[in-house]
């Protein structure tokens, strides 16, 4: 029995005898700016991920129910009302939503555009994952994370691949 986690157990063993593994590590060390840029992009995506999820959900609720109430947002996101209130305050400060206390939430033009872009990215990622052979439920779940972290170049390739016959 090994002490590796399930994730570590699935990874290939490190190349400790030199060769390609060592060369790849040396290449990484020569490009710290590129590595830093990649980590910065991920951190930025994580910061905007919550806002994007809220905007996308608000647009969906308005489309399906005619309004987006904070209680419905909390229920669908699986969070508590104070969390929703705090996030809605931030979205309002950022000019992405409008709302009155104890009333429905509405998207500003900028918020609507962001929500539409999120929905477009989500749909492309889902189509891509379905094309790879994933089932609908798994594709939807995985797309929720991928859609926030995929670059425009990669998303374009996903769309191209997903659209092939």
Notes on the structure:
By secondary structure, this protein is mostly helical. It has helices at 6-10, 20-30, 32-65, 70-77, 81-93, 109-132, 136-149, 152-162, and strands at residues 97-99, 105-107. The protein has one domain: Winged helix-like DNA-binding domain superfamily/Winged helix DNA-binding domain (Arc Repressor Mutant, subunit A), CATH 1.10.10. Helices cover 73% and strands 4% of the residues. Helix 6 crosses helix 7 (136-149). The termini are far apart.
Overall number of strands? 2
Walk across the major sheet and give the strand order: 1-2
Q: Which term fits the overall shape?
A: globular
Helix content: over 70%
- The second-level CATH architecture is Orthogonal Bundle
Report the major sheet.
Answer: 2 strands, antiparallel
Q: How many separate domains?
A: 1
Quote the distance from N terminus to C terminus.
46 Å
Count, helices: 8
Highest-level CATH class: Mainly Alpha
CATH homologous superfamily classification: Winged helix-like DNA-binding domain superfamily/Winged helix DNA-binding domain
At the third CATH level, what is the topology name? Arc Repressor Mutant, subunit A
Relative strand content: under 5%
Mean pLDDT rating: 82
Structural class, by secondary structure, is mainly alpha
**Uncertain regions spanning at least 5 consecutive residues:** 1-18
| Rg value | 20 Å
């Amino acid at each position: 029995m090994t002490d590796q986690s399930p994730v570590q157990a699935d990874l290939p063993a490190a190349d400790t005898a030199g060769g390609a593994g060592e060369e790849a590590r040396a290449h990484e060390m020569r490009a710290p700016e590129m590595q830093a840029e990649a980590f910065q992009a991920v951190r930025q995506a994580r910061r905007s991920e919550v806002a994007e999820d809220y905007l996308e959900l608000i647009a969906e609720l308005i489309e399906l129910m005619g309004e987006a109430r904070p209680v419905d947002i909390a229920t669908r996101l699986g969070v508590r009302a104070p969390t929703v209130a705090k996030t809605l305050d931030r979205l309002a400060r950022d000019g992405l939503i409008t709302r009155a206390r104890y009333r429905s939430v509405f998207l500003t033009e900028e918020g609507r555009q962001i929500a539409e872009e999120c929905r477009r990215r989500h749909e492309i990622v889902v189509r891509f994952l379905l094309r790879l052979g994933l089932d609908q439920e798994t594709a939807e779940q995985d797309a929720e994370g991928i859609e926030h972290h995929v670059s425009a170049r990669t998303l374009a390739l996903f769309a191209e691949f997903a659209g092939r016959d």
